[in-house]
Amino acid sequence: MSRGRPGSAAPAAGHACAAEAGSARVAPLLSAHRARRALPALLASLAWLFGCAPAAEGPPPARTLVWVVFDTLRADALGAYGNEQRGEQDQAPSPHLDRLAQEGFLFERAYSAAPWTVPSLVTQLSGRYPFDHGANRLLEALPERLLTLPQILSRQGWRCAGVTTNFVTLGRYGFDRGFERFDDSLALGHEGSHGPQAVDRLLELSDGLGGSETRRLLWLLLFEPHFRYESHPGLRFGRGFGTRRGQAPYAGPVSGAEPLAELRAALAAGQLSAEDLEFLGALYQSEVAAVDQAFGRLRAGLEQRGLWDEAWVIATADHGEELGERGWLGHTVRLSEALVRVPLLLRGPRSAGLPARRIQAPVSQVDLFATALDFAALPQAARPAVESRSLWPLLIGADPEPRRWLYLFSRFDPVLAAGAASTQSAHLWGVVDGRGLTKWVVDRSPAAPGQPALRAHWYDLSAAPGEELERTWRPADVQAAWRLSGLLPEPLGTRSGAEPLAPEAR
């Protein structure tokens, strides 16, 4: 797919001022308070005294929290993240999500905790990393011990409604926990688009929760643009359309209706040309445009009901997608930037007057859980002790030291029926250094003949968001060996007196 490079819009002046105040005037306080939960409120209040940030100890509370997850959505598929493609009838790739980005906060480097749906979603909803929450298998019930966001909110009087169109997130697997109303009737598989119907169903469920004074969580998972990629009339991209209108439409052998395993085998055998992959990418982009329209439909419905303007809105993805650039189609088995860097857009109540800004600091979706609890103004006593911590200080420019270590994990051993053999297997651990902009990945998947049992990779992420350059990893490199050792039960590399990762980095 042809993609433009992300823009580099400067932060709003007020937030730049807050950052300066945070670093120059309250630095002595930081070391004393870093470990305390009161730090975000403290910094926000100090920044306000200097005239640089909203006068609030926490996020302005809202009675409506809207959380939309787009399955398999790459960050670079959105216009807000630099995609300059135009499609049929000069269609922009994502006008509705781009509008949301212009109104709120766009995170340039947001990371999913896993490259496939179940562990990623459970991390978002529980505030626990996949190696902690344990939900790492297809079509299995969530662990009973897990507390999810809807469960916690419902205990505090919130009314929660959810709709999913992904068949691996059905209510019978535990994804309905805490929801007063939950609909998975549109989780119908890989063919067809059900976004508009899912939006309408969520609006119906919301109507049944009460009037505008009701505290409500509205959660939506839209399956598109997950494979199978399908073309949507009026929203077609690629050769013959929009910016490529002067070129002859694709006329190659790929239709897009082939099974994914067949396309992967053809790619591995060198049988898919650049034109074939470009065609599949154009189908994917059509799916992105369609799901963006579904989001616009949701916004319009909430505006009509008077719920949109004063809501907190979270829009993100569970993971991205590889479209052949690295020899793979789909997701599940890697921790590449195309798979774990995801879009993340947040927008607050209109009355709060929060200036829109792009946030460069790397963040993990594990922190969406605590952020949502902040948006709901939930008391600390009602919150479980988990890894998640709120992104609110980053939103107001009051956190000079964002999270450093962002953990990635994939244990993918699909079993579609009792006794069925796995068709793929992957076991990877990774960590992103949010300050050094590097990423380490340890691959513990079953080794192919001639491969070492343990494969370690070291990437430089500093060039631009979404880009990664693999560096030569040397066992003698002390820092890399030390960092990788934290991802394994046994040490990797040697050094005298080596220590494990600090607890806050695990």
Describe the structure.
Helix 1 (13-24) crosses helix 3 and helix 8 runs parallel beside helix 10. This protein has an 8-stranded mixed β-sheet, sandwiched between helices. It has a 5-stranded antiparallel β-sheet with strand order 14-15-16-17-18, covered by helices on one side. The chain has helices at residues 13-24, 27-33, 39-49, 95-103, 117-126, 130-133, 149-155, 195-207, 260-268, 274-304, 337-340, 368-375, 392-395, 478-485, and strands spanning 64-70, 105-107, 110-111, 159-164, 181-183, 216-222, 311-317, 322-323, 329-330, 341-342, 344-347, 357-359, 363-364, 405-412, 426-433, 438-443, 455-460, 469-471. A hairpin with an 8-residue loop joins strand 17 (455-460) and strand 18 (469-471). The protein is an alpha/beta fold and 506 residues long. It has 14 helices and 18 strands.
Structural classification: alpha/beta
Number of helices: 14
Question: For the residues shown, what is the average pLDDT?
Answer: 83
Q: Whole-Å distance between the termini?
A: 36 Å
Count the E strands: 18
The rounded Rg comes to: 22 Å
**Approximate helicity band:** 25-40%
Widest β-sheet, arrangement of strands: 5-4-6-1-7-11-2-12
Instruction: State which percent range the strand residues make up.
Output: 15-25%
Main β sheet profile: 8 strands, mixed
Shape: globular
